[in-house]
Amino acid sequence: MTARGTFPHRLLPYLLLAPQLAITLVFFYWPAAQALYQSLLREDPFGLKSRFVGLANFRRVLSEPSYLNSLEVTVIFSVATAVSAMAIALLLATMADQIVKGRGLYRTLMIWPYAVAPAIAGMLWLFLFNPTMGTFAYMLRSTGYNWDPLLNGNQAMVLIIAAAAWKQISYNFLFFVAGLQSIPRTLIEAAAIDGAGETKRFWTIVFPLLAPITFFLLVINTTYAFFDTFGIIHAVTGGGPGKATETLVYKVYNDGFVNLQLGSSAAQSVILMIIVIALTAVQFRYVEKRVHYG
Q1: Of 162, 166, 188, residue with least CA distance to 94
Q2: Which H helix or E strand runs over 50?
Q3: Cis amide linkage into residue 241, ω under 30° from 0
Q4: Where are the bilayer-spanning segments (predicted)?
């Protein structure tokens, strides 16, 4: 029979939950409700007059070629960022786990980039790959490659994917290292005695045991690519050139804060929220089935 904790007063549990509930209501549910309400209105740029238009904002947004372009850019950017950040982090975590001397130092150095703010990370990559004065841009041009992400949309996309993945690698690395440490060494040693090579041991023993962490990071990295990369895109490309790197979250900002199309911007934010919720639900519904716990 398991012991259950009891509170001396009935209101105490609710008082302990009150700060978190207040933060959730004020910073999530209230803005979401405001965006949903504003998406049904058409307002002038100064917010002095508004008119109820129903779903007209949604119909107009979904029929715009620029919005469909942003959707395509977001899919490419999110998939490339999540896959590359997780794959590189797993590779680095596996290599760091095999180091005996100085293991703690390597892990600490790998975690540091996560402390860099997204805008700072974007400016760092912009300076390094700036076609005029960037160190790596000079190295690329010296090899005969015409590097100019300010004019070439494909190069700009590669640049922001690299910057966003670099920013997230440290976070993924931390979880993968923790997962590798929790795997019993006896399983690895038994497989090695049976003649399994290092690659086979990884794919048949290590990687399946990392499935819960991999699934968790897949959800986190997807959300990160959709929302938290705004600062990187704003600092590096500003959505250009020619809207080649304008993701959905950046288009929300561009239409709402730059062009002052408040109703359209609110409708886009609601659509983006629905997409992320649906994508997360699909991941939990279908991907989690392949995850084995314990």
Answers
A1: 188
A2: strand 50-52
A3: yes
A4: 12-32, 73-93, 105-128, 156-180, 201-220, 266-287
CA R_g for the chain: 23
Say which residue the tokens 């029979």 belong to.
1
The per-residue pLDDT for range 272-287, each reduced to its tens digit, is: 989 888 888 888 877 7
d(CA 186, CA 166): 34
Helix axes 118-128, 153-181, angle to 10 degrees: 130
Quote the pLDDT of residue 100. 63
Nearest to 82 by CA among 184, 211, 215: 215
Which tens digit of pLDDT belongs to each residue from 111-168?
788 888 888 889 999 999 988 888 888 898 888 888 889 889 999 999 999 999 999 9
What is the C-alpha to C-alpha distance for residues 286 and 281, in angstroms, rounded to an integer? Answer: 9
CB 148 within 8 A of CB 165: no
d(CA 95, CA 206): 13
Q: Is 177 exposed, middle or buried (0-12, 13-18, 19+ CB in 10 A)?
A: buried
Span 161-189, pLDDT tens digits? 999 999 999 999 989 988 888 888 888 88
Three-state SS for 246? Answer: coil
Residue pair 131/140 in contact by the 8 Å Cβ criterion: no
Residue 103, number of CB atoms within 10 A of its CB: 13
Question: How many Å apart are CA 191 and CA 204, to the nearest integer?
Answer: 10
Give the mean pLDDT of 23-41.
89
Q: CA geometry: angle at 85 spanning 141 and 119, to 5°? A: 70
DSSP element (H, E) containing 51: strand 50-52
Residue 105 predicted with pLDDT over 80:
no
d(CA 283, CA 277): 10
Nearest-angstrom CA–CA distance, 172 and 224: 12
